[in-house]
Amino acid sequence: MGFLEKLGLKKKEKLDKGVEKSRKGLMNKIGKAFVGKDKVDDATLDELEEILITSDVGVATTLEIIKRIEARVAKDKFVTQSELQTMLREEIADLLEDNAPDKPAEFEADFPVKPHIILVVGVNGVGKTTTIGKLAHLYKKAGKNVILGAADTFRAAAVDQLKIWSERADVPIIQQGQDADPASVAYDTVAAAKARGSDVALIDTAGRLHNKKALMDELSKIKRVMGKVVEDAPHEVILVLDASTGQNAMQQAKAFTQTVDITGLALTKLDGTAKGGIVIGVSHELNVPVKYIGLGEQIEDLQVFDRADFVNALFGE
Predict the structure, then answer these.
(1) I need a surface site. Which of 13, 30, 206, 246 has the fewest CB within 10 A?
(2) For residue 140, how many other CB atoms are within 10 A of its CB?
(3) Distance (Å, rounded) from C-alpha 147 to C-alpha 164?
């Protein structure tokens, strides 16, 4: 049994429970729409389109899904509800596959460059710092030497919050306190990671988005100073989004991708929302892979995203 399975990252029951609200909402809508119908027609597809949009899949992604299904339905003279649901699963999985990374995130895998620098971004309140702590825990459990950088020096108590997570994950943290220069903290973190022979450094950043230019300038400076210490740093930029905010998360994601080269997404708070459809829409519209999903508050409740497992959980077996 591999490391991920041992930690329960892919446990079916955890994922099923985590997307239960989203699954019930989606399947109830589909069930009501198909009552009394024995075949799929244009009206059925129109209803399906509305269901997907109201399930926070998003307009653009919904239209793409419907277009693909229409092309398949046109080839057959008769398509049942069951066949339509199978098509829906397959097309959603294909959309997620289109944006999937080359291989699943493997905490045990060796990095091509050490230390491997991960910059984590996202607005306040989405679970950014919590996600960093959970990632640190997973890397530590996989035998990696991990270090954290508290470069969110703008928000009150942000440094203290990350320090608490560093203690929970039992990994060191580099900090300078509130109002320190974020780039300076990032530089010190990368330098410390290099000097200590760390495998990976996770760096927190400020979560404000009210001024895109200021955000862009700050993140550009952070990237520039890190690159002076370790070549091509950061090697990953993870955007953390709160799935429970639905289309607001989509707007945040679009704003960030205008200023930062995002390499992966982490969707938090899936266990408390019926808006799980946002996972599909945000990945498709941004053409960025979902790497992690948050399914609870415990340190073990961050799961590596698996498209097949997610689709099966969302629609039920």
Answers:
(1) 13
(2) 17
(3) 14
